[in-house]
């Protein structure tokens, strides 16, 4: 079973998926008139709070929740793994994937906000499932079978992915970090703490999750970024060599770190793009689910705010991590040789730990606390994604059972989960991206036209007079 699932996983996350995502990023970049040039304006807008708009939470709250789900352990361990597998050049391609992914994040968020709905309690619902349902509905209200299929496929695969990637995997990461650092603490104790900490927040709904993420995300990301900057300063003498090696290895075969790590163009491109695509989640359709709950005057306003998430997660956090790891391995090439001599699932974590250990006294604690807070915030953010998809599939009555299962899976993940759950959730991640990418490509012409009106013709303060319908029960 594990071998079969692993084979499926390698296929769905193979070159075809990477080409589909990266190709979509590049196409939408040109389709939107290179919306990335509006990034400075978008960053300023992200802290204004969405005054005067309709929604449940502030624009920053929606962004913080999405970032909480995006900036996970993959921003540390995943980058290290990409470097060890694809060489230093992987950092460059990761950065490129992040730059182009900003456009996809904008388009998918625009669609989610434009076609969002309210449930009978008044809370906003949005995401690719509602985009499929509303964008292609006929005049008499009926929805074509293929649109219904796209909506159900996205929601179903998203629920599978959230339980595994968002709950089990992240809880296992927290447990592994804590028990390895403090062996006296048993895994079941860590599991109980995770259950209590998660349940206390997610049962309060999106407002509760957003409140926690609004203060947790800036603190955890800021502390981690500061730690990275300190290490870069400590390795300042080789900073030029580090950047040169990253660029050189991105385009030419090169042996790095005393020959411990080799790289070629295709390996660097494959692993760098794969990690960059996964780290910012552009194209997966996850962040738009929470963006649909934001207070915003029009879809373009929140889409601009949301697209900054791809910038912070990949262009900043992952890039800082990459520079730290490459510079550390230049200064201490034996680190790479020692780690690769004993490869395991913890290889990436070992490289990150070795780099942060260079900061006297506080380096290792900063990394441990950073990885724990990243994983915890990811659990919170992904719980909301699953919550909204369950509401689409089964109606409000399905939310509480889902939350109970989500918390229970976190407990079992923390005390040791099998590879099956990890692999199934990874497959779910890839499969939910497909209907999301299809629908944003189908609507890209309309979104490009409206973007010209709202963004390039300077009408961002205009209130979109579009009704938000109220729905009841399952939506398929």
Automatic annotation (TrEMBL):
Q: Which domain of life is it from?
A: Bacteria
Q: Per its UniProt record, what Gene3D superfamilies does this chain match?
A: Amino acid/polyamine transporter I
Transmembrane regions listed in the UniProt entry:
12-30, 60-86, 92-113, 143-165, 185-203, 215-238, 310-331, 367-385, 405-424, 430-448
**What are the record keywords, sorted?**
Cell membrane, Membrane, Symport, Transmembrane, Transmembrane helix, Transport
Membrane topology, as annotated, equals:
Multi-pass membrane protein
Q: What is its main location?
A: membrane
Write down the InterPro entries for this protein, in alphabetical order.
Na/Ala_symport
Q: Where is it located?
A: Cell membrane
Pfam family of the protein (one): Na_Ala_symp
Keyword Ligase attributed: no
Coiled coil segments of this chain: none
- What NCBIfam families does the annotation carry? agcS (TIGR00835)
**Annotated family:** Belongs to the alanine or glycine:cation symporter (AGCS) (TC 2.A.25) family.
Q: What is this protein called?
A: Amino acid carrier protein
Species of origin reads Adlercreutzia shanghongiae
Q: What is the lineage of its organism?
A: Bacteria, Bacillati, Actinomycetota, Coriobacteriia, Eggerthellales
């Amino acid at each position: 079973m594990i071998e079969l699932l692993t084979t499926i996983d390698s296929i769905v996350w193979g070159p075809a998926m990477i080409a589909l995502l990266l190709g979509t990023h590049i196409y939408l970049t040109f389709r939107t008139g290179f919306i990335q040039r509006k990034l400075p304006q978008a960053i300023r807008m992200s802290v204004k709070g969405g005054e005067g708009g309709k929604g449940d939470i502030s624009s920053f709250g929606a962004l913080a929740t999405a970032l909480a789900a995006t900036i996970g352990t993959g921003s540390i361990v995943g980058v290290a793994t990409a470097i060890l597998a694809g060489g230093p050049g992987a950092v460059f391609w990761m950065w490129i994937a992040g730059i182009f992914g900003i456009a996809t994040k904008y388009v998918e968020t625009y669609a989610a906000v434009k076609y969002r709905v309210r449930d009978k309690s008044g809370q906003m619902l949005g995401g690719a499932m509602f985009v499929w349902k509303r964008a292609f509905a006929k005049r008499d209200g009926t929805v074509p079978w293929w649109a219904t299929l796209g909506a159900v496929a996205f929601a179903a695969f998203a629920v599978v992915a959230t339980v595994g990637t968002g709950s089990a995997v992240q809880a296992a990461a927290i447990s592994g970090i804590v028990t390895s650092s403090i062996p006296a603490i048993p895994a079941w104790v860590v599991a109980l703490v995770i259950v209590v900490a998660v349940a206390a927040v997610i049962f309060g709904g999106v407002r509760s999750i957003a409140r926690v993420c609004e203060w947790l995300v800036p603190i955890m990301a800021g502390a981690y970024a500061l730690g990275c900057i300190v290490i870069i300063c400590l390795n300042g003498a080789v900073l030029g060599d580090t950047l040169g090696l990253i660029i050189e290895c991105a385009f030419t075969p090169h042996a790095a770190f005393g020959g411990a790590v080799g790289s070629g163009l295709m390996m660097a491109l494959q692993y760098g793009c794969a990690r960059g695509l996964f780290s910012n989640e552009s194209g997966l359709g996850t962040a738009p689910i929470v963006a649909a709950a934001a207070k915003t005057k029009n879809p373009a306003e929140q889409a601009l705010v949301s697209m900054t998430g791809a910038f912070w997660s990949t262009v900043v956090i992952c890039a800082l991590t990459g520079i730290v790891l490459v510079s550390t391995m230049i200064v201490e090439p034996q680190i790479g040789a020692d780690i690769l001599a004993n490869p395991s699932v913890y290889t990436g974590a070992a490289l990150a730990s070795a780099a942060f250990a260079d900061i006297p006294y506080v380096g290792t604690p900063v990394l441990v606390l950073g990885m724990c807070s990243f994983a915890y915030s990811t659990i919170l953010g992904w719980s909301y994604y699953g919550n909204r998809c369950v509401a689409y599939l089964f109606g409000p009555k399905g939310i509480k059972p889902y939350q109970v299962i989500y918390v229970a899976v976190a407990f079992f993940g923390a005390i040791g989960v099998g590879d099956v759950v990890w692999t199934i959730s990874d497959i779910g991640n890839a499969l939910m991206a497909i209907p999301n990418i299809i629908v944003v490509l189908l609507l890209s012409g309309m979104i490009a036209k409206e973007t010209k009106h709202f963004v390039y013709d300077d009408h961002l303060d205009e209130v979109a007079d579009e009704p938000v319908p109220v729905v009841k029960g399952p939506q398929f």
